[in-house]
Design brief:
The protein is built from 8 helices and 66 strands. The protein is mostly beta strands. It is globular. Helix content is 7%, strand content 34%.
């Protein structure tokens, strides 16, 4: 049973703060945010005796901090709190008036800043109270000879940043495809020309390796399909490119088991770029400043360059609020307790490790390998000489707001946005803490991080992560820079509850639980840990896995408890419309004792629940114990027990309408808290981010393209995509406008009228009500022309799983596709229906060697049906394969 506490509501305080926000120039949305944020939190009365502290941007640190004479800075407020919080008779509130508080350094909190006698120190904002780590960039002037490009001197104290925001919208760091051919060497690459050596500052450049499933001729690299590592260049001399260390070694020298080629000792997949991988993109060079909305920081000259759009926000930089993220952390706590942060906005912070020689050598979920010998030691424990334990030896993304070994810390009605690391980190030792009614968006990495992944049970229970609650929060449009990040990531923990959140439009998985299951790849048991009794309940997850693959709505690996009674409970969640391949509830390596019950799962690639792994804790050869019961799904597996995996009482659905209304209504943010869904982080919608990973193939007179959709719409939904195929040697381009709804259904576009024998590259732009995004990076060139006429072969592995009114069809793609890849399947039903099936899973299942899954509904009980399936390519339709099934009575 779900157990958690609820906060009481103060509508009077909410109304007062809403009025204040409106009077001080806040928008209607800001006023509503102020009202609802406060209504969702505990009412905080002034402490008897006038112990509360008042702060305002126009206050004075010489003032006493009263309501009539507020102080100006958080640092001064902290000093006043420390003089008053030792023997509280009621909560002590720091009242932060609306406005922006520009922090010169992080607000660092300890036990000396904490509540006492069961009372809290409450940092109370209005919903329009901003804690900013940014510096405003002013004094822009046009750059001679570069129409549309402006430059400004970097603000004092800003030595580096990875983020720039224009009127509250993240600008794009310069990026492009690598302009030379590369051949990998032990220390980097040999280029086909010395072009990069002549660029302004080669040491600023980063190579990015985007992972994912192979689609058409999409270039896929990465350290596994769930990762997007990046390494800086150290230097370029002639055609010799030397990559920065230790990032390069940590990404190319990971130890591989000789008896299990392709697996690394750190046991997280392919795990090496040493197989000749070339970057999918290059970032952060002045020479790439060629698209409106892009920017570049010339650190040597201490100047920032910005390519202004022709219209809309930012067209005149001197008329815009342009913020460079300066601080790496806004608020930190170590040993702090009994604190609350309510109605605050945390904005404009960066993270500079990826810009350093450490780079971003990703493992999973934003964890990276660092240090000079990290590739040979980190996380390897007893598997390699000198291997370090625990798994926590890996480097986690820091939170821009971060608390370690903190108890009873509350975040309610807050907004985390425009951030360059993880949003909020409640690290090792986080206990009895709450994240409630808060919004997380436009964050470079993970949204919320709970605990860590230390492999051993801490001797001191104070180091454990336990009894935390993350409830009724909205996390969306993230991560936007480190695409392997997760909405909510929870390492080893006890009695944590992640419930009633909405997580949508994410680059990778929505929720990730556990760690340390990878030893099963080499026939070893999962790493022991102290986790037990965690709940992931009644969350609403949709439109996830928008960039990377091999994840899911709820992803778990490693031991989750010591029995089915104490293992992780995944119950009542609604997961739908996953883009990348994976599962709705993904039980990955070493995931034991998980209960998956009462969930609703549909529109999720090739499986709703999976996969099963051998449990190597004994010699029985059983699978990791798992209970899959009472779910509404498309997978259709029959009841049964298979070596520890129990499947029972699940419901096959052909439509979401077949799920009881009370089940779907109970998932996601609870009714009283749904005001959170109306919170916006920018006042004026802007154009969306560019699509990613354009893949193409060609047929006679036609070019076909697919891409990863835009999930960062900047306040206005994407309505269409503009697809352009441009002849490499010049000439008339081909164009197609694809409605976003059509692309969601088909996952590809066809551009007819192409000239055979002419090579084309394809770019894609996303469109919303504010206009078009920048164009994507161009695809690799493809050349249309007549093929051999070869059609695809027959599909294989066809099976059917029937209920009384529906059949779940499973099959694998043909062994040979003929002239072009598969773009769809035709299913003929013996009742006369002919169904054409398309979607992103159609494009990825064959190269990824995974099966297809579709449900055919509207069938009569106790009736025999024949289903015939044939593959469709750009050339035509292949040979059919049939399967028979009889529906239940």
């Amino acid at each position: 049973m779900l157990k958690r506490t609820r906060s009481r509501i103060s509508l009077a305080a909410a109304s007062a703060l809403a009025a204040a926000a409106a009077l001080l120039g806040g928008t209607a949305a800001t006023a509503a945010t102020a009202a609802t944020a406060t209504a969702a939190t505990t009412a905080t009365a002034a402490t008897p005796g006038g112990s509360d502290v008042w702060v305002a941007p126009d206050g004075s640190d010489r003032a006493p901090g009263t309501a009539a004479r507020p102080v100006e800075t958080l640092a001064r407020a902290q000093q006043l709190v420390r003089a008053r919080d030792r023997d509280l008779a009621a909560d002590l509130t720091v009242h932060l008036a609306p406005g922006t508080y520009r922090l010169s350094s992080a607000l660092q909190l300890t036990g000396a800043d904490s509540g006492s006698n069961g009372h809290k120190v409450v940092w109370q904002g209005s919903g329009a109270t901003v804690l900013s780590g940014g510096s405003r960039v002013t004094g822009w002037s046009p750059v001679a000879g570069r129409p549309g490009v402006w430059s400004a001197k970097a603000p004092a104290g800003l030595r580096n940043t990875r983020q720039l925001y224009v009127d509250g919208v993240r600008a794009d760091r310069t990026s492009g495809t690598v302009p030379v051919s590369l051949t990998q060497t032990a220390t980097g690459y040999t280029a086909s020309s010395d072009l990069l050596a002549h660029w302004h500052d080669p040491a600023d450049i980063e190579f990015v390796y985007t992972g994912g499933a192979k689609v058409f001729n999409d270039q896929v690299e990465g350290l596994g399909g769930w990762t997007e590592p990046r390494c800086p260049i150290a230097s370029v001399s002639g055609t010799t490119i030397t990559m920065a260390q230790p990032c390069w070694n940590n990404s190319t020298r990971r130890v591989v088991f000789p008896d299990n080629p392709g697996r690394t000792v750190d046991m997280v997949g392919p795990g090496t770029l040493s197989n000749g991988a070339t970057p999918s993109a290059v970032e952060n060079a002045y020479e790439l400043l060629n698209k409106p909305g892009e920017w570049y920081f010339d650190r040597a000259a201490h100047r920032i360059y910005y390519y202004a759009p022709r219209s809309g926000p930012g067209r005149n930089p001197n008329g815009s609020d342009i913020e460079a993220a300066r601080l790496q952390q806004l608020v930190t706590g170590s040993g702090a307790h009994d604190l609350a942060f309510r109605g605050l906005r945390f904005e404009y912070a960066t993270w500079l490790q990826p810009s350093s020689p450490e780079g971003f050598s990703e493992i999973q979920g934003g964890y990276t390998i660092t240090g000079d010998t990290g590739y040979a030691t980190e996380g390897l424990c007893g598997y390699a000489p000198g291997g370090s334990c625990p798994y926590g030896a890996w480097t986690k993304e820091p939170g821009n707001v971060s608390f370690q070994h903190a108890q009873r810390v509350e975040f309610s009605g807050d907004v985390f946005t425009h951030l360059g690391a993880a949003g909020l980190e409640l690290g090792d030792g986080a206990q009895e803490s709450v994240v409630h009614d808060s919004v997380f968006t436009d964050i470079s990495g993970n949204g919320i991080e709970l605990g860590g992944v230390d492999a051993t049970d801490p001797a001191d229970p104070a180091h454990r992560t336990q009894d935390n609650q993350v409830t009724d929060d909205h996390l969306y449009a993230l991560p936007v820079e480190y695409h392997g990040g997760v909405g909510i990531i929870n390492g080893y923990s006890v009695h944590d509850v992640i419930a009633h959140n909405q997580i949508d439009h994410t680059a990778y998985s929505a929720i990730s639980m556990g760690w340390g299951g990878w030893p099963d790849k080499i026939g070893q048991p999962a790493t022991a840990n102290y986790s037990h009794d965690n709940q992931v309940a009644q969350n609403l997850i949709h439109d996830h896995m928008q960039t990377l693959d091999d994840g899911g709505g709820i992803y778990t690996q490693g031991l989750t408890g010591s029995s089915m009674a104490t293992g992780e409970k995944v119950t009542g969640n609604l997961v739908h419309d996953q883009y990348g391949f994976g599962k709705a509830v993904y039980t990955d390596n070493g995931c034991t004792y998980e209960t998956i019950s009462g969930n609703v799962m549909y529109g999720v690639s090739y499986a709703d629940v999976g996969s099963t792994h051998t449990d190597y804790r004994d010699a029985l050869g059983d699978k990791d114990p798992t209970l899959i019961s009472g779910n509404w799904w498309e997978q259709g597996d029959a009841d049964g027990t298979s070596k520890g995996v129990v499947t029972q009482g699940n419901h096959l659905i052909a439509s979401p309408d077949e799920v009881p209304a009370d089940v779907t209504a109970a998932a996601g943010i609870e009714p009283a808290d749904r005001w959170v869904l109306g919170v916006r982080t920018t006042d004026v919608p802007s154009t969306p981010a560019a699509p990613m990973r354009v893949g193409t193939f060609a047929a006679e007179h036609a070019v076909y393209a697919t891409w990863n959709p835009t999930y960062q719409d900047n306040g206005s939904p994407v309505t269409a995509y503009e697809v352009t195929a441009t002849p490499v040697g010049g000439g008339g381009a081909l164009h197609a406008e694809v409605p976003a709804a059509d692309f969601a259904r088909t996952a590809y576009a066809e551009l007819g009228g192409a000239a055979d024998g002419t090579a084309y590259t394809v770019t894609v732009a996303a469109r919303n009500a504010a206009g078009d995004s920048p164009e994507s990076l161009p695809s690799a060139p493809v050349t249309p022309g007549p093929g051999t006429g070869a059609l695809p072969g027959a599909v294989t592995g066809v099976s059917a799983k029937a209920s009384a009114s529906a059949v779940s069809l499973h099959w694998s793609g043909p062994a040979s596709t003929g002239d072009t890849p598969v773009i769809g399947y035709r299913v003929t039903v013996s009742d006369g229906r002919v169904l054409t099936l398309t979607g992103r899973d159609v494009l990825t299942t064959q190269p990824a060697n995974h099966a297809m899954l579709r449900v055919v509904g509207g069938l009569r009980p106790a009736t025999a049906y024949t289903f015939t399936i044939a593959a469709i390519t750009g050339t035509g339709t292949g040979a059919p394969t049939s399967v028979q099934a009889t529906t239940a009575s």
